[in-house]
């Protein structure tokens, strides 16, 4: 059994993980990405297909837009992430807060979003103060890494000061991100309301609040 000390770090994804997909942020985000892509010249008829392909190829649509259309990442952040009405749709979650407080490890947020977006979501949920830090994507950084790329996990460990992968824990709604975390040596939990034939990681839960049921030894 793993010894849970403060050397252990629990990495939490944010979007569609700490809150359920039914909140609708994904749809709002897609609408804004498509609108931005049309503004910078993508064909109106193909914008959804092109942005979807960029997401599959590069992990984030914005990376494809930067690479192939030389967009201003600051403008993207302002018009897409920055325009989301997060405070209107994401509510404070006392149950989530209590659960995270019980985790017998250091808590670190690990997201493919930008820092401002990550901070806003965590504050809306009422849990920002529970996390020591956030590993995020800086859209203005040349060739920035994102999940599920291995360098993103290396960056998260470095920023969190984690040295031993066997003392790292991770929860995410993306099966690809969870699979890479497991490959990287972390204990990985996939959170998704959808049934799966085989878990992408070590465990599968339907909602984040069920985390103690699969890792009871990690909770006080």
From TrEMBL:
Q: Which GO molecular-function terms appear in the entry?
A: nucleotidase activity
InterPro entries, per database record: HAD-like_sf, HAD-SF_hydro_IA, HAD_sf, Pyr-5-nucltdase, SSM1_domain
Q: Which GO terms describe its biological process?
A: nucleotide catabolic process; pyrimidine nucleobase metabolic process
Please list which residues make up the signal peptide: none
Q: Which named protein is this?
A: Pyrimidine 5'-nucleotidase
PANTHER family named among the record's database cross-references: PHOSPHATE METABOLISM PROTEIN 8-RELATED (PTHR47438:SF1)
């Amino acid at each position: 059994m793993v010894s849970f000390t403060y050397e252990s770090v629990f990495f939490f994804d944010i979007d569609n993980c700490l809150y359920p997909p039914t909140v609708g942020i994904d749809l709002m985000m897609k609408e804004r990405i498509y609108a931005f892509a049309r503004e910078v010249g993508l064909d109106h008829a193909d914008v959804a297909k092109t942005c979807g392909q960029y997401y599959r190829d590069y992990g984030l649509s914005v990376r494809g837009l930067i690479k192939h259309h030389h967009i201003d990442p600051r403008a993207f952040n302002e018009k897409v992430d920055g325009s989301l009405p997060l405070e209107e749709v994401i509510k404070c979650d006392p149950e989530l807060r209590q659960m995270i407080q019980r985790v017998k490890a250091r808590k670190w947020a690990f997201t493919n979003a930008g820092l401002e977006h990550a901070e806003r979501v965590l504050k809306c949920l009422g849990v920002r103060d529970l996390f020591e830090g956030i590993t995020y994507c800086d859209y203005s950084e040349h060739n920035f890494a994102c999940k599920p790329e291995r360098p993103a996990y290396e960056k998260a460990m470095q920023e969190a000061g984690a040295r031993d992968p066997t003392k790292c824990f991770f929860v995410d709604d993306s099966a690809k991100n969870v699979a890479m975390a497991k490959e990287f040596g972390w204990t990985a939990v996939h959170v998704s309301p959808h049934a799966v034939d085989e878990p992408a990681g070590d465990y599968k839960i339907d909602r984040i609040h069920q985390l103690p049921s699969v890792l009871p030894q990690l909770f006080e």
